[in-house]
UniProtKB/TrEMBL annotation:
Natural source organism: Paenibacillus hemerocallicola
Highest taxon of source: Bacteria
Protein's recorded name: Phosphoesterase
InterPro entries: Metallo-depent_PP-like
């Protein structure tokens, strides 16, 4: 059975993100190769990955080459840096599915690029990216930006362990 993973904010090809987020890479090439290796070490060929935005700053040819090297079936929820390109551009580059808007996963998880407004009475968890190394307080937010997960996609099982009380696991 396929596993499901979540990740965001790779910023492939974005030189300045290394300094902006104090990423431990000497170049965009080192960042790209390390992030591809970490993705493929976690994600199998038949697994599913939801990328929650800000995937690549590169042209379509280079973006497609990276996507072709990454394991799994890949869905993009477009981030603020992805929206300058059309949904079709991202599909042509190699994502199997692309959404311009947040989606509900598993009836309980709101997948979005930017954190969504959530109050304590809402029965959902917002899995998001966008804020990189920052973190929202509370169990209703789960940041999957690469900086929080050693540049590795995080499994749905791991997310559920951290946000759903243990007696609800089943």
């Amino acid at each position: 059975m396929a596993d499901v993973f979540f990740i965001s904010d790779h910023h492939f090809g974005h030189k300045h993100i290394i300094d902006f987020e104090s990423r431990p890479f000497g170049s965009t090439e080192e960042m790209t190769e390390t992030m591809i290796a970490k993705w493929n070490a976690a994600v199998g060929k038949d697994d599913v990955v939801f990328h929650l935005g800000d995937f690549s700053f590169l042209n379509k040819e280079k973006t497609s080459a990276i996507l072709g090297r990454l394991n799994g079936t890949k869905t993009l929820i477009m981030g603020n840096h992805d929206r300058g390109r059309s949904r079709t551009w991202w599909l042509d580059a190699g994502f199997e599915q692309v959404s311009e808007y947040p989606i509900v996963y598993g009836g309980f998880f709101l997948l979005s690029h930017e954190p969504m407004y959530m109050n304590k009475h809402m029965p959902y968890v917002n899995i998001h990216g966008h804020i990189h190394g920052q973190k929202y307080e509370g169990n209703q937010y789960f940041n999957v930006s690469v900086e929080h997960w050693d540049y590795t996609p995080v499994s749905f099982g791991e997310i559920k362990k951290r946000v759903v009380p243990s007696e609800e696991h089943g």
